[in-house]
Design goal:
globular; mainly alpha; 11 helices
């Protein structure tokens, strides 16, 4: 569980860097381009420095395929935020862990205990509560963006699990392929939108690339010892709870009864998932 905790911490660092960028109206496409470049360079260095890594036939195709989902998920997230708001978009992203959980049970032969089923149900309650779906009137277009976001983010996690199951030994090469291809795609989108790179944007993007690479690497390492039916929900709910704590203690937002309820339910869900 140590690798899973480190992945969650890196995810929280990413979230806070992105929040800083959003508050200062910095363009996201060039930030993500430099972020993917930095993550690719870190992965290449780790690959070259590790003589024990054996590249498999799954590393390149799965890494390249997942890069399209990474960039696609990023673009879909901002479309979903534009059409549905941040809370609903984030809750749908977290609910997408249902896909790797289903894949773990149906494809990779993992099992769910009674306590883990309860934990998943509590997790769903917590995540759906964020978006307040019952109070939101969403258009057909908005629902379409949410469905695509759910599908793309969840499929990316399934590919991570599939790589870990079939490849395992070449993590750094897999991540180098993933992030370098994502860098090329993000650079193309940035060019098409004619967005320039400022010194500040480059620095933030390079800074973002380090925890971005680390969170993916730590997740792959966690999947080597923790079933996906535990790993993905635990990571999702940990990042959710941690984000609320960061909102309070870093960004000065006040706790509401709803947030306290969500944190408590999240903690109970994490405990049940790991029984």
């Amino acid at each position: 569980m140590t690798w899973l905790a480190l992945s969650a911490i890196c995810s929280l660092i990413i979230a806070n860097i992105l929040r800083y960028a959003r508050q200062h109206d910095l363009p996201f496409l060039p930030i993500m381009t430099m972020n993917y470049l930095q993550a690719a360079l870190v992965s290449v260095v780790l690959f070259v420095a590790n003589d024990s890594i054996n590249v498999t036939r799954f590393d390149f195709p799965l890494g390249a395929l997942n890069s399209f989902l990474y960039v696609g998920g990023f673009l879909l997230y901002f479309e979903a935020v534009k059409n549905c708001g941040i809370s609903i978009a984030v809750s749908v992203m977290r609910l997408s862990v249902a896909l790797p959980v289903m894949a773990g049970v149906l494809w990779f032969g993992e099992t769910l205990s009674f306590y883990q089923i309860l934990g998943l149900l509590l997790m769903a309650v917590a995540l759906i509560s964020i978006g307040r779906f019952s109070r939101s009137m969403l258009s057909g277009k908005a629902m379409g963006w949410l469905f695509l976001l759910f599908l793309v983010i969840g499929s990316s996690s399934v590919i991570d699990k599939a790589y870990n199951f079939y490849g395992k030994t070449g993590q750094h090469f897999y991540l180098a392929t993933l992030f370098f291809t994502a860098f090329l795609l993000a650079a193309i989108f940035t060019r098409l939108h004619r967005i320039s790179f400022s010194g500040r944007v480059v620095k933030i993007g390079l800074l973002l690339g380090i925890p971005n690479q680390a969170t993916s690497l730590f997740l792959l390492m966690a999947l080597s010892s923790v079933d996906s039916v535990v790993a993905f929900p635990t990571l999702a709910i940990s990042v959710l709870s941690g984000s609320m704590l960061c909102d309070r203690f870093i960004w000065g937002e006040s706790f509401t009864r709803e947030k306290v309820f969500l944190i408590v339910v999240s903690m109970v869900a994490i405990v049940l998932l790991n029984l």
